[in-house]
Design a protein that fits this description.
The chain is about 25% helix and about 20% strand. The chain has about 55 residues and is α+β, with helices and mostly antiparallel strands. The longest helix is centred in the N-terminal third of the chain and has 13 residues, at about 10-20.
Length: about 55
């Protein structure tokens, strides 16, 4: 992406909190890219990726 979004940190925070309160996950689509914002408690734990394995996106 070559330019910043016209969203403030406060707007993003309100979007995330509103989605969480409604029991949803905030998802933003920018062109062909989808950005999904999920609470840290629901995120997968960090792990080391084996460079020898194929990664499916």
């Amino acid at each position: 992406m070559t330019r910043a979004l016209a969203l403030t940190e406060r707007q993003i925070t309100v979007l995330c909190r509103g989605a969480a309160k409604a029991g949803h996950v905030a998802e933003v689509k920018i062109g062909e890219v989808v950005v999904r914002l999920i609470p840290k408690a629901d995120a997968q734990p960090e792990r080391i990726i084996d460079p020898g394995k194929d990664i499916e996106l």
